[in-house]
Amino acid sequence: MARDAITLIKQDHRDMEEMFDRLSRNRDERSRLLPEMAARFLAHSRAEEQQVYPVVAREAGERKEVHHGAEEHHEAEAMLRRLQETDPGSAQFDDRLKEFVDAVKHHIEEEESEVLPGLADAVGKDRLKELGDAFDRMRQEEVRRLMAGSAEERSKMVKEQLAEEVDRARRASH
């Protein structure tokens, strides 16, 4: 059984921060880590926007904050797309990763200090658990769908790209 929505969202935030750290430190693993981080970020954002934000807007009266949070998700998604188009070994990747991480951390700070406390004040524990179940279910479905798409993209790689990925994975495991 899932925990309440606030606990799940905050845990996702901590997991995301850990993934950001791993991406920053482990240059050789970026090609492997980036698709997972992207899938988790996108799944979190979509589940939050569809399952949690409507309740926050309606029951907590935080329409302005919800709109702002959704805008920040979309801005971060655009940054993520640029990051995914960048060579993971380049200085430009480092710059784009920092831009993305800074934007997401800003979003996390606002959400945890303004949006989630408003939700906690507006709904009871049972409702928070129901929201947690819905959020968790959608997030997991989205991660599976996005990771399957990522695997499909990898299967389309030309032979040289695939060989390069295999070499990177071998180097990372030694």
From TrEMBL:
Region feature (Disordered): 148-174
Alphabetical list of Pfam families matching this protein: Hemerythrin (PF01814)
Superkingdom, natural source: Bacteria
Annotated ranges, domain Hemerythrin-like: 5-117
InterPro entries hit by this protein: Hemerythrin-like
Annotated PANTHER family: HHE DOMAIN PROTEIN (AFU_ORTHOLOGUE AFUA_4G00730)
Protein name (Swiss-Prot/TrEMBL): Hemerythrin superfamily protein
Species this protein is from: Spinactinospora alkalitolerans
